[in-house]
Amino acid sequence: MEEARAFCRKIYYSPLRIDPVGDPxxxxxxxxxxxxxxxxxxxVGYGTDIRVSIGALETSYHVxxxxxxxxxxxxxxxxxxxxxxxxxxxxxxxxxxxDWPGTCRLLSVKIERGVLERELDxxxxxxxxxxxxxxxxxxxVDGPGRTWAAxxxxxxxxxxxxxxxxxxxxxxxxxxxxxxxxxxxxxxxPYGEEPAGLQGPHRPRTVKRALDVMHAEPWRPYTVxxxxxxxxxxxxxxxxxxxxxxxxxxLTYLRRLRLDGVHAELSRSDPGQLxxxxxxxxxxxxxxxxxxxxxxxxxxxxxxxxxxxxx
Length: 311
Prior knowledge:
This protein is of the alpha+beta class.
């Protein structure tokens, strides 16, 4: 166990604690890990039930992809389960606690913070906030998540052998870039929800400034005057710019951003661990009646319906 702790602290994070909670006789730690520039790929298992505690991440984004079994995660106030159908995503802020059964073996992908942020910045042709407001999970059954996980597993297999194609430096660099760019296109983030008119170099700087602060801290009680001050223009100019380039007024966009954030969090949360009101307040909604009406109008169901996992 001490060797496992020392290995994980060296390879992953120094403020890391591993405590066995299952039968110590079945403990069988194994980790096939490869360091490839700014990314660390590994297949890890412990053989017995453990609990992992990690201090606040600061340097990296991290993705866990269960290959077998199930994993329970606590991060930033949310409890999320992952299994071979759903991956976990961690942004570099907040402590992490994992309940890791002995039956769970997983792919672990660590990506340096600046590398993923630069990739997403380039892909969107706009400046993104740091840390990125990423979704806590993504689907591994269909769509890009399935392809990305298969790419990671293939790359790890290739790098673990002495004569694989990926062992060639030029190919290894290209595969590394595919892992980073693939994750940027796979993981949930609010920038992908922006109307097409906002993407690219023709977006006005005034609009961009207001959008940046809204995406960075959507829960803040901004007024249109606050956003106009950030943008460096008058209220009327900001409103007209948003109507022309976003298709809606600034505060309408902010409400939509908050509603989407609430919907994403409720969709992936355990109804026994938190309430709708708790999530609504966290995203800046102070009047629950108006919030519930706006939520139903946007998604067609009540917030509690989403929390129960039926939509």
